[in-house]
Write a structure and sequence with these properties.
By secondary structure, the chain is of the alpha/beta class. Helix content is 58%, strand content 11%. The radius of gyration is 24 Å and the shape is globular.
Length: 443
Amino acid sequence: MLYSLVRPLAALALKVFFRKIYLSNIHRIPKDKPIVLAANHPSAFLEPCILACFLDRPIYFLVRGDIFVKPFYIKILRALNMVPVYRLKDGGYQNLKNNFATFEYCYAALKEQKTIMILAEGRTIHEKRLRPLQKGTARIVFGAYDIFPDMEEVQVIPVGVNYTYADQPRSEAMIDFGEPIHSRKYWKVGETNASQAISDLTEELRKRLEQNVIIIEREEDELLTEQLFELYRSENRDNTWPVISHDPGRLFAEKAIANFVNHLKPEQRAGLETQVNAYFHKLRSLKVQDAAIAEKQTFGWRLPLLILGFMPFLAGYLWNYPPIRLAKYITDTRVKSIEFYSSVQIVVTMVLYLLYIPLWVVIAARSYGWAGVAGVGGMLCLGYFALIYQDVYRDWSESRKVGKIKDTDKKELLKMREIIWHGVASHLPDVSNNGTLAASSSI
């Protein structure tokens, strides 16, 4: 019951936090089958929340056992479909024994055709690459077959989780579901060589995940690749609404850019870095953003919207400021790891709003009756409007800065940008509607 109550609230919070959430190839998840969703793990618990909120089925999550410490917390976590997995550092060998109960729970859940989510890397690190996979996914699948040999085949779905900036509000999440891995053929190998079967399934999962995850192979290439991502996003700005999109193009274009950088020869990389660094250095010196330089339209509606919408923005901003500012303060002072920042900020904001809204409902109802209650709802809507208003204001402000620079500087920036983008785009494939890559001269 708690899962059903929290789910719509979390979905709303995620739609506010992210500017865009791409969920591509959901159709690859079979219905009424035992499913294991095996995902990479770049953030603390954003990806489980996104899948729980926007997939059309309950999901049972394997999470770190060290958070199952007090009876009260255990009841809440269990009610949210969370299942503990203990590591050696979560209490030594004594707690490792508790994993037998977890595995038995998973076997029974798969037998009942439920969907289990496993974070296959086993640990969370905020980086755009795939880390070595743990073998727990294969062990759980084969364990279910050992206990229920006649059960329906478990299908393992690779889930590639990608973020533009996972620690920043109004960023984007890109999640893609790969083709199902039919696991029974690997289990048959396990009848004669269990270790080989586990390794084979884990290796197949790794290969599939590599197709759904943006991978920057070398840490020293991260800055260059992110700068090229920025150029691509400026050229291909997506509409804010609807927040949920099923278009795979964004993910596979950025994946293609990362692959392009990964395969550059040293001299090509050095030349491209020189060009890109010079362009971004000039942007910084003129205090303008690439998105404003790349704009192909004037967007004359922005200023009227900003003028007409200022008072609604101010009302929504001020009314929603206390819980949002307090949540940010708590997150800034308590969270030291980038992997946990956004997850904690969203949860803390939700909790504060669950206290803030009833307080205002009581005050407004006593003062103005049902009209006051409706006013509280209106203020929440104005809070979202304030977010959009700020997005529009930033775009207008950046365009205005570009309008003030000299024509010679703007032409130079456009020329530099064109040279860089032509050199990159000529090596990139197009992204078709189904997420596959087809040869072309541009993105």
